[in-house]
């Protein structure tokens, strides 16, 4: 690691010393950008033996500081522009164009993938009722699984304003904790066969850190028909993972528990040499089918909930979920 860092430092010194000041931004991105070789090497320090970490880390930080100083010196060598007469024949400056947010890009990619598999896109309100968010998904008031959801509850006057369709349900209002309520809404209005995805924003009342956010994006998937089995679920999961993260990524289903599916699974992926937990899934619980006015003796189905933030972080090597909502243009302009 030390040899690689020193070799990179020698290469950078030589290139910066002979560079034209006009190339400052190109060199800054090359050597100090988020996707730079130096950043890649610094990210590998965590995998070094403990006795090598301190030395490599100190050397890497010194090189990073020296590179920043050399690049600043290069920028200062740029000559100040001389005042010239205005030439109306010179083309005007084009303002920088905006671009789609990385979460929107991932969502669009997933929607395109699922449309190719025959799925439709469904939507539901972010202000939900307790009935749809919990009760009809087999999570009654006294169910221990409710402890896993720290919920933003709303005053009835506020909730009814944003969700007038809930009038008469005698239900509390909340910011939905998952996109699963779209399942119930769709089942009540459509007959099988059903193939839908429901991407959208969800909310949890929890402390925020590099891997947790109180506002995040989820994509719910639901397929209901005659004769649907776990084999169909596994095939769809494999297709999603390999299309988004790469054909070399392996998947496995690990038994788990969710009140709205039975059996339930956690999906793990073999990604960059490690097994990582990706999402939850399972066969739709018969009670949930009944609550959606579907006969569980005739139809079966599977459901899954994929974190759009999570898969975007894996795809692009992002290590802090808070960057998505930070409004940091330096971060957003890299996508």
Could you walk me through the main structural features you see in this protein, from its secondary elements to its overall organization?
The protein is α+β, with helices and mostly antiparallel strands. The protein folds into 2 domains: 2-76; 102-332, Bira Bifunctional Protein, Domain 2 (BirA Bifunctional Protein, domain 2, 2-Layer Sandwich), CATH 3.30.930.10. It is 39% helix and 21% strand. The protein has 12 helices and 10 strands. The chain has a 7-stranded mixed β-sheet with strand order 1-5-6-10-9-8-7, sandwiched between helices. A 3-stranded antiparallel β-sheet has the order 2-4-3. Strand 8 and strand 9 form a beta hairpin. Helix 2 runs antiparallel to helix 4 (50-76) and helix 5 crosses helix 11 (308-316). The model has no long low-confidence stretch (mean pLDDT 87).
Key words describing this protein structure:
335 residues, alpha+beta, BirA Bifunctional Protein, domain 2, seven-stranded mixed sheet, three-stranded antiparallel sheet, 10 strands, 21% strand, aminoacyl-trna synthetase, EC 6.1.1.20, Phenylalanine--tRNA ligase alpha subunit, Phe-tRNA_ligase_II_N, tRNA binding
